[in-house]
Amino acid sequence: MTKVAFIGLGRMGHGMAGRYLDAGFTVKVWNRSKKKADDLIARGALWGNSPMRAAEDVDAVVTMVADDEASREVWLGEQGVLASWKPDRLAIECSTVSYHHARDLGRQLGWRRISYIDCPVTGLPDAAASGKLTLLVGADPADLEKARPFLEPLGTIRHFGAVGTGTVYKLINNLMGAIQIAGLAEGLAIAEQAGLDMNLVLEAIQSGVTASPQVLRHSERMVARNFAGATFTASLRHKDAAYAVKLAESLLADAPLIGRAAVEAYARAKAQMPDDDEGKMIEIVSRPK
Ligand code: NAP
Fold first, then answer.
1. Distance from the CA of 64 to the center of ligand 1, in angstroms?
2. Numbered ranges of CATH 3.40.50.720 in the chain
3. Residues classed as catalytic
4. Tens-digit pLDDT profile for residues 120-177
5. Which residues belong to CATH 1.10.1040.10 in the chain?
6. If one looks up domain 168-285 in CATH, what number appears?
7. Whose CA is closest to atom 34 on ligand 1?
8. Predicted confidence (pLDDT) per residue in 167-186, tens digit
9. How close is the Cα of 10 to the center of ligand 1, in Å?
10. Residue 229: CB atoms within 10 Å
């Protein structure tokens, strides 16, 4: 039976790990707080006492943790995966990390002859649990073929090129998302303060030219102030936008203009409500004069 270790059982990782159980893999799991693994263990997953222990004797390790710091900890820390790993295995990083970190991790694993795939994803936790994510892959083509059986249970593969390119796409995607959501919040706040009929505003937005999927997803919830069940937090949105702006600064002389404003807006949201839904941006911008 194919053996995989899954590290990081948050909103996204929990569902993704479950996909491997459903597909009949032998699954070892680790999460910083063990409680989140309990039901997966009841379904047959094996608990590893650390990323290092979880990674012993598996063919591939898949990680889905918060950010660069968490990724560094689970791969390269004292009890990290690399402490027990041998060459010729497969490392799949699904977390959204910075471009610099993705490339650096690829290099560090490459020196140890471990194949590395950078594989951030798009899709919400329900897509993670049902195998309907889009996998934004940066990998050597031979490594991708090796990784395919471990990727297919999670969703649809989009291969952008060498290691790091999946992360580039993910970061521009999420920067554009941050800009759209912050822009929508500001537009709605203006309409509210100007006294417009918000049902009419919603109807017009949803059938108008700015109705991107992000705008469609957030507009009604923002107007209703209905943020039950955060799927993507203010803190994660800030992290992604900040990583994207850093990448932009390394590539473009005069950008990012709008990107920096979105990072600033999400820095405020993160300071006030880090674990709340990103759509609560409307509450940040709608304070009347
Ligand atoms: P989450 O629910 O907050 O889970 C974060 C995970 O990272 C948890 O397992 C957490 O462990 C772990 N973690 C945090 N800091 C750590 C550290 N220093 N050492 C070890 N583990 C650490 O977040 P999520 O929504 O699942 O997101 C996970 C990743 O997917 C992020 O990179 C995010 O940007 C990306 N993503 C999220 C979505 C979404 O809709 N939520 C969509 C696409 C991509 P504990 O459980 O112990 O806190």
1. 6
2. 3-163
3. 170
4. 999 999 999 999 999 999 999 999 999 999 999 999 999 999 999 999 999 999 999 9
5. 168-285
6. 1.10.1040.10
7. 96
8. 999 999 999 999 999 999 99
9. 5
10. 8
Mutation probe of ligand 1 site: the residue of 7, 65, 158, 278 with most atoms within 8 A of C-beta:
65
Asked if residues 91 and 81 have their Cβ atoms less than 8 Å apart, the reply is yes
- 201 vs 198: CA distance, rounded Å: 5
Q: Is 19 left (phi over 0), alpha (psi -120 to 50) or beta?
A: alpha
| Per-residue confidence (pLDDT) for residue 4, from 0 to 100 | 98
Does pTM surpass 0.90?
yes
Residue 76's pLDDT band (cuts 50, 70, 90): very high
Q: Specify the pLDDT at position 1.
A: 66
Query: What is the CA(84)–ligand 1 centre distance, in A?
Result: 23
Give me the CATH topology for the region 3-163: Rossmann fold (3.40.50)
